[in-house]
Amino acid sequence: MTFLSSGSEYYDGVQRLSATFLFLSCLTFGQTPSTPASRLDGVVTDALSGAPVRRATLTLTPTRGNAGTIIASSDGDGKFSITGIAAGVYKLFLEKSGYLNQEYGSKNYQFAGEAITLGAGETKSDLQFKAMKQSVITGKVIDEDGDPVTQSSVSAMQKSRWNTRSGGTNGNTNDIGEFRIAGLTPGKYIVVANSFNRRMNRSTTGMINGVMRTIRSNVTQQPSAQEEDFAPTFFPSANDEASASVIDILPGQQMDNIVIRMRKIAVYSIRGTAQYIGSKPPTEQGVQVQLIPKDAVALSKGFGARQISTMLQKDGTFEFQAVAPGSYNVVALRHDLAQWPLGSTPIDVHGNVENLGITFGDPAKLAVEVIWEDKEETKPVNGYVMLTSITVGNFVTPTLMVKEGKLPVTGVPGGTYSAQFQSSDAMAYVKQVRDKSGTDLGRQLTIVENTNPELTLVLSTKMARLEGSVSADGKAAGNTTVVLFPDGENRGSMGRLRTYKTDAGGRFKMERVVPGSYKLFAFEEEIPGNVFLNGAPPQFLENKGTVVTVKEESTEKVDLTITKVE
Fold first, then answer.
1. Which residue ranges form the domains of the chain, and what is each CATH number?
2. Residue 287: count of CB within 10 angstroms of its CB
3. Is pLDDT above 60 for 354?
4. Is 0.85 surpassed by the pTM of this model?
């Protein structure tokens, strides 16, 4: 058995000697001589055959506190022993070539498992870690004539009643069109191939004479010929997700001979100019232009919808090649403003687009004061403000440092933003935004180009607590997932989305909840992390859940039953 401790620190001179002495006198990772160490013993077996799994790597990580991470290996009989553990709460992870990465206690090999609580000097010797072999999909991508399609990206998307999400490792076709996708958990999948990699080879960027330029190939299209490229194609040869064939893959199974026949569609070019109308133009290489699909769902799934970027040329022009039909936003971003979104225009592509124009001007010079709601609070505000653009594609801007209650004058492009605050000094939220005259603007900032707004962010530490229990059929429902979803006036404030695991008695407690309206859901099964991130629950949950209103400095108690999902 081997073990390591994370978080080592280095010192110079006397400090180095002191640290070394402390380490040698306390080899049990935070244990004092008077505190007995704890121990874990167990065995790793194959979940399907029951055979011992040797040389599996087990990592014991504390969920909180300063205890060190410990790494151990299973022996030839699959047994492992981890000693010198400080009392606390831990997670245990397993890694082994050919097997899924797992967390101890996970029900379906891809979500969170069970925490392991150890008291001082306690020994747990009956851990049974069942390792599941990875599932694999292999196959080939061909064109309409049966010839191999190289440089194509292939993804396996796992389907559930919650959503469709990427699974395993994406595969890329080799020189004969073959692909392999490993690391898959059991379940139902659709497989999609797209030619994004091939298109990227058509147009790229690079430095020429110290200036970022777009580098294009010398390939030209005959004037009378319509340019074509491969469309995203679902197994076996479908153009949309609804028509795809579903592959049901079993635990540890290798599914071979999945053949995807790709079809070509008409693709188009977009050419235009980005015109600066302010007083201080950016540097030549300072503007990037992005083509962003409006279909955020397809973009997040990777179904061939990709964000494409190019640099603005010295003469103010830009070009996108091999663009599939669809609806997009063309967005200009300035590098000297940390790539904050500037001008934007929507566009529907059903043919070649010429002379598309974007204009952008000087950013506003934003001055911000950050204060506490309680006027008697004397502690100066230190922390970070984050602005999220609501106007252009939900861009998250760089964090802005607040020191002594002041945010230095910062260039911010025009648009509407939501504001959030973080600090290690105190847990607080942005309760109110005021303009120079003291008018309450709510929680959103509307910024106009080439102005000098002076705003005040009012912070409140008056958060609430939410606690309760979950039951199913009249019995406590332990180890279930509780979701606190922002609703009512809070809807869209996804920074307030919370999830929690109930304990063995079905109880839960959420601290530091921002006041407002919410819906509470309780699920027996694990919930993928991105289900609620589009600002609304799935449609089949729209009329479900328990509505709760949380008030400042209150403790709200809610008893839930399992949310039935049909």
1. 13-131 (2.60.40.10), 135-195+231-265 (2.60.40.1120), 267-360 (2.60.40.1120), 364-460 (2.60.40.10), 464-561 (2.60.40.1120)
2. 27
3. yes
4. no
